[in-house]
Design brief:
By secondary structure, the chain is an alpha/beta fold. It has 13 helices and 25 strands. α1 packs parallel to α2.
């Protein structure tokens, strides 16, 4: 069984509805595998929490259709239902054809779609909207509607009767206006689930509301209409040959589970490191520092001087480090946030300052301009970025840049991927299934089979 939760536009309540459905379905005893369309770390953190299984990414910008289908099928192993939360509007994509839209993912997977309608200040017009989405692309099976932000019973009745009369689609339920269902925003999305446990009560409230408001049996009947996909064989993990430290705590939460699994499949044992509490690095061969919101925890990161010094010393001693966005910020000398400077590790020769406006947001394409153990020269790396920080006071004489930006912003709109000793640090987030060589190369570098020296640059 599988199902896509989509909407005509962003901010319609897709995440709220999806979270509530997952909680309600689990209360019925079902195992739900969550997915998120599009590059995202924050919504998936909540979907993971709700489902008790790691949320997976589905995006046709990163994976071709057949590989995406295999990834979906493998991820659903052991689950009763695959539930996919869309991104933006159903048909929104990078090009005129919507080639990487939520609709394209739904069509690729032959998955029925439930359309979430934000019903604020609307009655009969909702039917016209739904009918337009129904007829826009016949490859996409819109199978039902869930109403969100319904004002009162009379409002719901008019919406329900209009949609069902003019479109023939069932309205499976209606969620009333209720601020208890809202998880606070930060920058480009929700607050990460791991950051504030006091917000977790919103999941319980939303699950209870969805369970009461939505016809769950009708929803499961729609999900069961999807044809079976071919099973994917399980590949056993090799014995680990290196240990790679991973900053995993409240400050650093932006990791695709696929990336961590790719490292394991390449022969690495991930070792969690708490950047806020650990006073030293464990016995590791390399370090992976992902994204997150280090600026929010800047005072605590600064206070942990022993770990900051340990990271700097390890880099000077030649330890391989791969850092993305928040990781790049941690490797800086200083971080400016809300008018105050905080000391970071000082491993790389630049400072970072926060802006109220996004400095980079969306899909990226990075051309590898030089040979390195991380990528081969001439590779085109597809990724994404979303950051409010920017690099300043960079000593360009002490570093090199690995990427030439073809799409996106990176460091300055032209380059990204700072190389220093055995470090690669940039704003570009990589999705490992799109580039399997990423994990293999990092593990080989950690194992000492590849060397990168300042002289070689």
């Amino acid at each position: 069984m599988r199902l896509v939760i989509a909407a005509p536009h962003g901010r319609s309540g897709k995440t709220t509805i999806t979270l509530g459905l997952i909680v309600a379905l689990r209360q019925k005893g079902l195992v739900v595998q969550p997915f998120k369309k599009g590059p995202d770390f924050i919504d998936p953190s909540w979907l993971t929490l709700a489902a008790g299984r790691p949320c997976r990414n589905l995006d046709l910008y990163f994976l071709p259709p057949e590989k995406l289908k295999r990834h979906f099928s493998a991820s659903c192993r052991g689950a009763d239902l695959g539930l996919i939360e869309g991104a933006m509007g159903l048909y929104d994509g990078l090009d005129l054809e919507g080639s990487n839209s939520t609709a394209a993912v739904a069509a690729t997977l032959q998955a029925p779609v439930l359309l979430v309608i934000d019903a604020v200040r609307m009655t009969r017009s909702a039917a016209a909207m739904v009918q337009g989405f129904q007829n826009f692309d016949r490859r996409v099976q819109i199978a039902g509607v869930i109403l969100n932000q319904v004002a009162r019973p009379r409002h719901e009745d008019m919406l329900r009767r209009s949609i069902e009369h003019y479109t023939g689609l069932p309205v499976l339920g209606a969620l009333p206006k209720n601020k208890d269902f809202v998880i606070p925003d930060r920058h480009l999305g929700l607050v990460p689930a791991a950051e504030n446990e006091t917000l977790h009560a919103a999941l319980t409230a939303t699950g209870a509301a969805i369970g009461a408001a939505v016809d769950m049996e009708a929803l499961l009947a729609i999900a069961s209409q999807a044809p079976n996909l071919p099973p994917v064989a399980v590949t056993p993990l090799p014995p680990p040959r290196v240990r790679i430290g991973i900053f995993q705590d409240r400050a650093f939460t932006f990791y695709y589970p696929e990336n961590l699994e790719a490292l394991q499949a390449a022969g690495a044992m991930p070792v969690a490191v708490d950047s806020l509490a650990a006073d030293r690095l464990p016995a590791i061969d390399a370090l992976y520092i992902g994204g997150g919101f280090p600026e929010v925890f800047a005072a605590r990161l600064e206070a942990n001087a022993p770990l900051r010094q340990a990271v700097k010393d390890a880099i000077e001693a030649g330890m391989p480090v791969y850092a993305e966005c928040g990781g790049l910020m941690y490797l800086a000398r200083r971080l400016n946030y809300q008018g105050r400077w905080y000391a970071m590790s000082g491993a790389l020769p630049f400072d970072v300052t926060m802006s109220s406006r996004p400095q980079g947001h969306g899909y990226t394409a990075m051309m590898v301009e030089a040979a390195s153990p991380f990528w081969s020269q001439g590779d085109l790396i597809r990724g994404h970025e979303f950051h409010h920080s920017r690099v300043i006071n960079l000593d360009r004489r002490a570093v090199r840049f690995l990427y030439r930006v073809q799409r996106g912003f990176g460091i300055d709109g032209r380059v990204d991927g700072i190389i220093y000793r055995h470090v690669l640090a940039g704003y570009n987030h990589v999705y490992a299934p799109a580039h399997p060589e990423w994990a293999a190369n990092l593990v080989a570098l950690a194992a000492g089979k590849e060397k990168l020296t300042a002289a070689a640059l």
